[in-house]
## 1
Amino acid sequence: MLKVGVVNDTRKHSHYGCSLVMDNLHKLLHDNDMSVAWSWPVHKDWRLHKDEILAFPEVDLVIVNGEGTINNSGRKKYAQALMEFAAFSNQYISENCYLINSTLFNNTDESYDLLKAYRGIYVRDRASLAELADRDIVGTYVPDLTFYEAVPYRAVESHKSSICVTDNTVKPMASRLKKYANTKGYRYVTMMLAHPRNKPFWKSPRTYVKNCWKWWFEDRNRSTEPQAYIDTLREYELIVTGRFHTVTMCIKNRIPFAAIASNTPKIENLLGDILGESSRVVTIKDIESDNYPEKWPFTPIEQEKIDQFMLRANVGIEKMICSVKLDTTREDVKAPFQYL
């Protein structure tokens, strides 16, 4: 069984979408006779803890889970850290280092050059693939890992409640969405649970205290399982969300939604890949209007495109893991990476 090191394990922040990504990654690895020997958490800069990483057990390969981290590398240290990791791995850990499940946006040319050290690169939208192509970097497109394991289409039942509103990664917009939900009398749920472990006291005392308070009085009785969050979404006719992974869950489970833009164009890019357009991305002013509808069912064309996409997504995700395994066990160590 091949031993794997995983970098940017995003489960630390009690985020339902990130938890589902990691759950699916572990399942895919297990089903392909690979096991995770160690993982490195999100928002812990490996460059400051090299000795800690080098003390981990030896592995056959390293998988870096990009998700939404790799954007604006000129001002975001964690984006830059992930882009630098392949060179470090090649020298000290394993030359079998692969970037998967990543969105790329607005990074510096110098940072993009660092990605050439990865043996294989898998991005989760075609706009990110274009970012690579513009710089003569080889990679391929495979949808986000939350799409793994297709869910058959199931129509929304007419007796369900009207609208559920979720948060946004941009804090001012999350506050506005919460205010909108309270004004309209809609349910408001967050995609990330408050928990004392989300951010340590020494990094941000104020955030730590807020997380402790919210966890104790609001979130400690909420399930941490992604399926519990999905089951909540299923209760409503329409989801209004500013979260990328809430959109992926809605698409996968055929739950109608209206999306508010996130911190990068990742939602617009996602919908462009699936539906060919992004009309379901609306503005906050749109949903705050008095005549905004409480239902927005998928059209037959949207349903068909989603069904076709889900089949392609599962095939692509499985091929990605198979490609990584075959490459790691190749006889010719100098052979170029082959995308299946």
Note: The first strand starts at residue 2 and ends at 9.
## 2
Amino acid sequence: MANRRKWLVVLLGAALPVCAATSGSISGIVKSADGTPQMGALVEVFAMGTLQPIVAFTGQAGSFQVPSVTPGNYRLKVTAASFLPSLVENVVIRSGGRAVINVTLNTLAEAIRFLPPRQLSDQDQDDWKWLLRSASNRPILRFDEDNGLILATSAKCEHQESHSVSGKVAFVAGAQADGFGSAPDYGTSFDVRQALFSADMLSFDGKVGNGNGQPAGVIRTAYRHQFATGDTPTIAVTLRHTAPPGSIAANALSSVAFTFSNTTNVGGLIDLTYGSEVQGVQFIRRISGVRPFATAGLHLGKNMVLEYRYATAEPASAFDRALDNGNDDQVVSTPRMSVVGYAPALERDRHQEISVSRKHGDTKVQAALFFDRVSNLALTGSGDVSSIASDVIPDVSSDTFTFNGGNLETRGFRLVAEHTFSRELTALLDYAFGGAVTAPDWNSAGSWADLREALRVEDAHSVTAKLNGLIPESGTRWAASYKLTSSNAVTPVDLFNASPGHADPYFSFVIRQPIPGGSFIPGHVEAVLNVRNLLAQGYRPFLSPDGRTLYLVQSARAVRGGLAFTF
């Protein structure tokens, strides 16, 4: 391990001189609220901590261009006759990058709507003399001694909707089929977000349902704040409850997790994401764990990134994400539990990865090396084990179970190539080589310990082909993938793959079809169908201690569908 870290330090040290920061640019269009381009508007670009701006003026079409901008964090001030000045904050320029900032100027009557006064915080009193707020309760009009009235926004929030509250809800039917702890047959997933002021976000999301005749689900609440420096810390609390069939309360799985994470940029060259999750699990007895994680991306140019990733939890499968109706940045890791001799065991993971990604036109490629170590590996099995009282935890709703597969330690590499043919079609190929847990042919009954001893870690290959498409006439979005693994593997090769090449084993597809609602149904409605391992491949049979035939499998066949609402 020490040698790997030394080589990583040497590699990063060698790359830094090569990737010396190159200038970027800022451009955009200035318009009025009715869309009229504003010629002659003054655009001032301020670097963080400086008072001397870079000055530009808009042309006849309202466009402006600020070339040769040093990588860093900037703010833009745009002024024009008869309009309020507009301030755009948190404009981040990376090495060789280009930021496109389109600004809408407003008159005083267009910009504000008076609301009852609120109690000002210390930060408000220090930064601004007074402010007026929009209906969504974000500071839009500020006054200070230097700039007077300023309409303030954030470049990082331009993509957000103007509504203060946004939400997504999905009603789902169909078992998750991932062993103990899987989502129930029928459930509801939701994601509600409330914008607070100009740089804060409060979110409440989760999945609830009725699992094995008892209430089950996961609920998460998170608070995110964005600083002017670009740092974006997030604090989250996650509660989970799942119970096996017929279990007493003492055998129900309950967990609470506290998560802190932060995203920042260093010198316009390095993107950092880091944090940790402290998890407490109650299942037969109390178990705790700490899950740190980090990602560092070094920009070697406009279209190349060298990245290091450290993870302590398996990424959510494509099948799970398709119907959660949430966002990738809010994926909640599931405590992977198993039992050995009636004693609970929590899966503990450690994944390290070094990758290089490059974009050339419509093609993206990635090459990665990874090192994985897993203890108490939770394997998925298929078959009825509800009457078996040892070493397996069933999920009756999907006829699957979880079995402790021992330990896994491996290393390998991954190659990914993705090409966008058009807005309607994208194709991807993923190849991985590394260790996977394999199950031998099993012809006689034995103990659970015998089965665990028979499992082996062997080198294996996997090849994944993915297609993503859009049918413009109907608005139908679809994705299909096929992932083939060599040998008799019961775990995927490259278990922690979080790249665009990540896919469920064997043939899977998802379809999202918009449903016209007119004025009767507010927001956006989609019908969703998701099928995993349609051909039921990769099932490895074995005989349980009582002589019945059961199976170990990378991913059990499952079908889920439902309605997703966005408002």
Note: DSSP finds five helices and 36 strands in the chain.
## 3
Amino acid sequence: MHFTSGEKTEPITRKFTVDKVFGISVIFPSEDEKVGGLQELKAFVNLDGAVFSTIQFIIKDSSGAKIAELTPRPGYAGYYVTVVDFSNYSDGEYSITALLKITSGESDDDTHNFKVEKIYRARILRPSAGAKVHGTITVRSQITIEKARMRYLQLHIRKKGQPSTDKLLSEWRSETNNREYNYNLNTTAYENGDYELYLVLTNTTERDPPFISPPTEIKIDNRLDIEISQPSDGASILLPSTGIIVVKAVKAYGDYSITKMLFYIRPENGVYPINPSAQDITPDGAGIYEGQIPVSVPGTYFVKAVAEYRTSSLSSQVEHEHKFTVFEQGALAISCNPGWVRPAAFVVGYRKRLIDEAKTKVTVTGAKPGAQITLEIEGIYDTGGHLAELIVKNADGTVTVRKHETPRPTGTFESGINKISGVTDDNGTFSCIYTASSIAGQERIIAKCDGKRAEYVLDVKIPDLVKMPKPEGKRYELVGCPSGAHSETHYLLPGFIPVLDIIAQKYYGKFEDDRMKFNDMSLPWGGKFDYKYNNWTGPHDTHMSGRCCDLNDVGRGQGVPPFNDNARNEFLEDLIRNELKLYLLKEPTCWHIQWNYKVDGSRGGY
């Protein structure tokens, strides 16, 4: 700048402020987030005009005690992250504070509360509850680990009702790829009687309580058992010209000696006679007992072998039964092996096992060699809990008849359809595999050949389901199935019934002004529901095998979670999840509980 001599100058002044904009925000976990396992903690940092000095993540437990102080690494676009393994943390409530300090000494922080909640469960797959076992059996166990890591899994056995007899059978300390564990149990080392198997699973955090599986009751009985070796179960036998069927039975296991083997026979819809049709007191060199039973009429029969044996001072019996079909030459006959199947399920990860249990081998006999055989299948209504039609009386006195909008589904033959054709072999026999659908009930298999026809009624069912009894007093109420599409919806596996009774008793004991209302469970034979007579694809995918129950009420009456009263919700949730160790799914209109459920959490009834 150039100034001329004699000119006057004055200074120019401007005011300004230093205003640094900076801050930090916790991004993950969000407020009240549930975490577990390896998790990436994340915060966003704004440094507009500031220079940071340090950034820290501070984790505290519910008491305010500092658990960890971590230095995150810079991520992209202003994010700072670090990874924490929460499987080493006890379940409970925690807080995370993201702390930012800048070079001027100023700081900013943000705090979120979160929960550590790990999932670690175990169940016994085999033997099934109530199984009668002998000799050496394989105990199959499976675990579910989510957001946690296994420390060890223990398998225990004890006499039923006698905790002091508890014995550790095996312990595993590393996870397998499929998370299944097998143990060979020699039952002959135990007295005959009722026992309980159960699992204890702990994660890597010793402060967390272990998961103890519901006990699986088994009956050890190594005394004596027999098997019918001829005819096989579900066999088809050509009616012999002599009118005599040879039945054979053997001692399967046991320490006692058989004094006499008795053989009985009855037609499918008949009863066994008082006196045996044949008997044998001297087995052959292979230990086989043989009976010659007169059969002169084709049809389906049941044969029973009864072994008499003597203990130290008492006489006793044990028996075994087979079903078989007798046909005449030139007359068609159908047999299935096995004689009944389970409804097919569609559970991811278990598809092969469940589909195999829905398969049966269908055999047609009595045709000429090289003859053309046609097999068809049709569903039978009013079986398995599915009604053919419902007669509804309207308010104006008229009557409405409701029928299914689509035919009752059936399974398929190997071709993937419900009709198959083939040619008989040199013996006039044709066989194929049939797979049932997910609808339980009876299905009629029809064979046609050269103007002849034969039928076989196949039972598709989950065995051993029993009806939930009506309560004594006011403990609970059975509700549900408002559409009337089914005859009954309150069937369960026997072991689930006392568990539900405990829920009802404890809830009623706590809140005497209310009682629990149990909604849909399973159909009498299990399988899929056709809830609204529409297309056989209604709800209740997990209600197929007697292991599930809904806690709700149509119309939202009392005794229905979720309650407006938090105390009732908290009491019931703690009882179901923590005390009884049941799976609980909380939905807007009901709570869904599963007993001995599929531990990988996927949908399905097995």
Note: The chain has a mean pLDDT of 81.
